[in-house]
Request: fold
Amino acid sequence: MMRIVLVVLIVVVAAPVGAATSKLSADGNARLFLPDVVGPVRPPLLVMLHGRGSRREHMDAVAPTAVEAGFVVVTINAPIPLGPGKFQWPPGADIEAVLKRISTYLSGFPETASERQWYVAGFSQGAWYAVLLAMAHPETVRGVLSMSAVMMADMPRLSAPKQIPLVLWAGYQDRYAERAAEFFADLWRRAGSPVKLERFDGGHTLPQDWRLRLPVALQFLRNPEQR
Reply:
């Protein structure tokens, strides 16, 4: 199993990003997005994982919309370089290595250091790991948004978690993501867990109307009984 040991220092330099304020880790591999105004109730935490050959900035563009929907957000670079500005998560299904990397960066931000449960959203390979994290660690993951997940390896012997909601996005022109979405949706349904499978006109990308879809998806993750 891949073991990743990181020492993370946080640069406390705030910069406005849409409706959010952000903080960047000293090594540049993680960014924390906070709402400009925090009410009496502590916002839930959403971890966002980019796809293979991408970087956290892909999720940085999505994060402010999630903040507007009532979340604190952390975006994280995958650990394995693929070239200048490109990264991937561990090949296969090394769930523990991904969890370790997420936990390391969350513990580095004072605002998220005490968080023991969080939501997770991912795109492509990041979505693959988002779903696997929920299956392997239901005590930690509260809900999952899977955006164009692709199955990157043989499926580990894991069961769908009970009562952890899942939203799946898959483009009609993305046959691999469609297959993965149908597979995971079936697992969730057979477990009696809340799940929504949403298709859109497009390929291996976010839907064009993701800014409208995202708040609805996140609301479902928080309150799946309110369909």
About this structure: The radius of gyration is 16 Å. The chain has one domain: 14-222.
